[in-house]
Amino acid sequence: MALGALTVAGFAPLNWWWLPPLTLAGLITLWRGAATGRAALLGFAFGLGWFCAGISWVYVSMHYVGGMPAVLAGAATLLFASYLALFPALAGWLQARLAGGLEVGFWRHALLIPAAWGFSEWLRGWVFTGFPWVALGYAHTDGPWAGYAPLLGIVGMDTLNALAAALLAYILQLVWQRARARALLAPAATLLASGALGLGLAQIEWTQAAGAPMKVSLLQGNIPQELKFVPGRFESTLATYQQLIEAHPADLIVLPETALPRMLHQIPPEYLQGLAQAARARGANLIVGVPRAESETRYFNSAISLGTARVQTYDKSHLVPFGEFIPFGFRWFVDMLQMPLGDFTSGGSAQAPLLLGGQKVALNICYEDLFGEEIIAPLPDATLLVNLSNIAWFGDSLAPHQHLQISRMRALETGRPMLRATNTGATAVIDAHGKVSAQLPFFTAGALTANVQGRSGATPYVRWGNWPAVIFCAAVLALCAWRARRVRQPA
């Protein structure tokens, strides 16, 4: 558990990218010689520490912002972390079950353990709609392995982190056993070569400039979540964003998720008309986060465009369980908590980019950018990625820092700039190499203005998604299962 909790320092804001391979190497060392049940239990304990620390902001949102009693909020957070810990437990079980004659050998560390880890993390990304937060690959938005992201995606990066960890564990095992120097050659050379190749891959330009640079303004209203829906506050929220729009002209102005905290049809028409006319007068476009109702039973978490281009809409597709929709069979649980939760309708999975100012803008809302294969759906057509978020729900916690790092991975994978407009932070411009080129301070109201260059072309990840990494992991596990079965069979 301590190793798992320590792993979280590898992510933002500390960004100690070298730490997750070391802590995972510690777990792999503990796995050595462990039977399937004990290996699974060790993986679960590692995961429990990892997720209790890594998603501690769940407690912040439920207790400090949502008002849930501390005991209930703590229990719910622990339960969620326990569920997520089942996936590293699965990795531990798989590597022990399928080891066969590879118990202490090079190939167990170079193939079986990375494949078991990568496959379990892929499962975590889609089972029950998926929640791959603080996947170890995200720690490598910096460091020598960042160059692999456009090829391998996050599942491949998770597998690569596990490879580095397993090789480190194997080297330490050989040193402890006082093995001959030549026995260290294969794992040490593989580890060093992976880093050197990553540095080389980072020099490749997978995409190219598309169209003229665009001046953008990303607005951060800094509206406290506990005041956002208070009666009488609505008018001041509208005034805040109107003032920011007027004071920071640009070709494209982006407001955060649910910046206008009422249904679209409840916003005063003259306010929206005024925004649209002001944008058109300056030859600009706005993207406004606002919920909208299609009928009395169909509500969407949406963003609309206003200005020189025609009005276009994006509806959030990947909704947050319990936060934006209530999973089937859990209405009783929500009623017991007595918390006001949304019940939105999912938007379509094949929504076209918005045509704005000569660029094709692919929108995603809040934690949708956690799912790389959904982000690449409108690519390579789209030239810019834009994320609208409201992370005020999580206060001054790890969540906004971690979310910024997730967006950086999406920029690396796609070779596209990612623009982030958030309510309280992190509002930022991320370039096509995953670097933060500009950012507003957290918990301040303001606008981030910058020139951004759209990009065209397709990285290997845009073309193939996570499937090459998933197929590799599945093939290795299948081969090891076949070999282990043969070893167990009597002669």
Structural notes for this entry:
With 491 residues, the protein is an alpha/beta fold. Helix content is 46%, strand content 14%. The strands form three sheets. It has a six-stranded mixed β-sheet. The chain has a six-stranded mixed β-sheet with strand order 7-8-9-10-11-12, with helices on one face. A two-stranded antiparallel sheet has the order 1-14. Helix 6 (106-124) packs across helix 7 and helix 7 packs parallel to helix 16 (467-488). The longest helix has 28 residues, at 70-97. It is globular and about 75 Å long. The model has no long low-confidence stretch (mean pLDDT 93).
Quick recap of the structure?
This protein is an alpha/beta fold.
Q: Give, in order, the helices and strands.
A: HHHHHHHHEEHHEHEEEHEEHEHEEEEEHH
The Rg value, from CA coordinates, equals 24 Å
User: Span between N and C termini?
Assistant: 41 Å
Task: Please estimate the helix content.
Answer: 40-55%
The count of β-strands is 14
Query: What CATH architecture of the largest domain would you give?
Result: 4-Layer Sandwich
| Major beta sheet, strand line-up | 6-5-4-3-2-13
Task: Give the CA-based shape.
Answer: globular
State the low-pLDDT regions, or none: none
Which fold does the CATH topology of the largest domain refer to? Nitrilase/N-carbamoyl-D-aminoacid amidohydrolase
User: In the CATH hierarchy, what is the class of the largest domain?
Assistant: Alpha Beta
